[in-house]
Amino acid sequence: MARNDRDGEPGGSGRDALPEEVGEFGVGKSRLREELETDGPVMGGPGMVRIGADRAVSTGTGGLAAGEDLDPVAEGDYWRENFRRRPYYEAEKEYSDYEPAYRYGWERAGQSEYRNRGFEEVELDLQRDWDSGEDGRGGWDEAREPARDAFEKVRARRHRNS
User: Distance between CA atoms of 28 and 34, rounded to whole angstroms?
Assistant: First the structure.
């Protein structure tokens, strides 16, 4: 194992090399620890991995069933890229028209009370909560299919990971 300390030893790079192992980077490839310099507080916690300037991904500390591994940025990106391919898509609508229903679906699927339950089993509860919302969103009939899509996507991933 190579180690470059920060104490001024020759060859020191300011980074600590981790042990070489077979992993996602291949045999003999090491992962380097990297310090993140910021202008302010950084949100995150155990199991968070920095992957870019604007987001991090959870690496599985709490389990998707608890909603902790659900990345709302990734979910939004997925639906933003795919909403036009869905059978309920209407050409005059933009992603912003569907986004509240997608968000509602993926958020509810990550909640413990909906764990291991199918959409049809919880739909009446979801509809009641959606219709009682006071944020000016449309009716359940319009939101149902996008909410179902997002709910089922999260549920399917949870079952694949369990």
Answer: 19
Tens of pLDDT along 48-84?
444 444 444 433 333 344 445 689 999 999 999 999 9
Could you tell me which of 160, 158, 148 has the C-alpha nearest to residue 70?
158
Closest CA to 44 of 54, 32, 31: 54
Which residue type is seen at 111? Q
Report pTM. Answer: 0.58
CA–CA separation, 29 vs 137, rounded Å? 50
Query: pLDDT at position 45, please?
Result: 45
Angle between helices 72-82 and 95-109 (to 10 degrees): 140
> Which residues lie below 8 Å from residue 48, measured CB to CB, with a gap of 6+?
56, 57, 58, 59
